Amino acid sequence: MKLSLGFSPCPNDTFIFDALIHQKIDTEGLSFDVHYEDVETLNQKAFGAVLDVTKLSYHAYAFAANDYVLLDAGSALGFGVGPLLITKDPALAERLCTADNDEVIAGTSLTVGIPGKYTTANFLLGLAFPQLAHKEEMVFSAIEQALIDRHIDLGLIIHENRFTYQDKGLYKVMDLGDYWERTTGSPIPLGGIVASRRLPDDIKYKINRVIRRSVEFALANPESGIDFIRSHAQEMSEEVMYKHIELYVNRFSVALGSEGRAAIHALFTRAWALQLVPQTSKELFLQSEI
Q1: Any idea which residues carry the catalytic annotation?
Q2: I need a surface site. Which of 56, 75, 223, 230 has the fewest CB within 10 A?
Q3: Whether 278 and 213 share a structural domain
Q4: How many domains does the chain have?
Q5: Residues 6+ apart with CB under 8 A from 67
Q6: Domain closes at, from 184, 204, 231
Q7: CA-based R_g, the chain, Å
Q8: If you ran DSSP here, which 8-state letter would residue 100 be given?
């Protein structure tokens, strides 16, 4: 059986899916037509129920729960893995770090570049800095350059950019993952893997098994997919590539477990309370896991 599968070209995703798509493990008769897209494009495709299986942001899942069920394997959660709010202006970074944010932001027209409206990163930004109303959506990899060129005042970075921004003369305002951890005590849920509700239940469980098997193979054989991972990592150094994998692929990628599920529930509970996501997703979410 052939299924359409979407994930990003970032090292954590290519690391996780290498063994699955290259038949290094038993895929139980499944094969995959792979679509490589940035996370916000994957979110938008999920809203249209385009793919059979896809990576998406947990924030976006609230808007796609009618069509997709959350899988237990393949997620990106963890401590110290959150998005960073950065700037080109060290004085602005210092003011936002040390002063009352309301006072600093009030009356300004600060523009923040975000990697997508439905990313978990943007959700966290809304929790930490609800006053930042002027947002510009852009591909995550373009945010650093937009700051350098002073097209935006602040940038919300994800993925490997957390390892490179300082080398480009940029300054951290806040680690939003750290903000989440301090306020909730939970790991931050960034992205998960979902399967179409149209698929038979036995196929959904089979997909989850082979994804888990692929993650386990990758962790046990970390150099097995190096050429594949590098081919999608653009100009990223091997050191940054492995830092990226180490940061985002962990025990929660093998299986969410009770701690991972509790963290996801905490994220959605806050989102529902603040009316940031549809209330209609609540019942589906609570029943939605393979």
Answers
A1: 159
A2: 223
A3: yes
A4: 2
A5: 46, 49, 196, 197, 198
A6: 184
A7: 19
A8: -
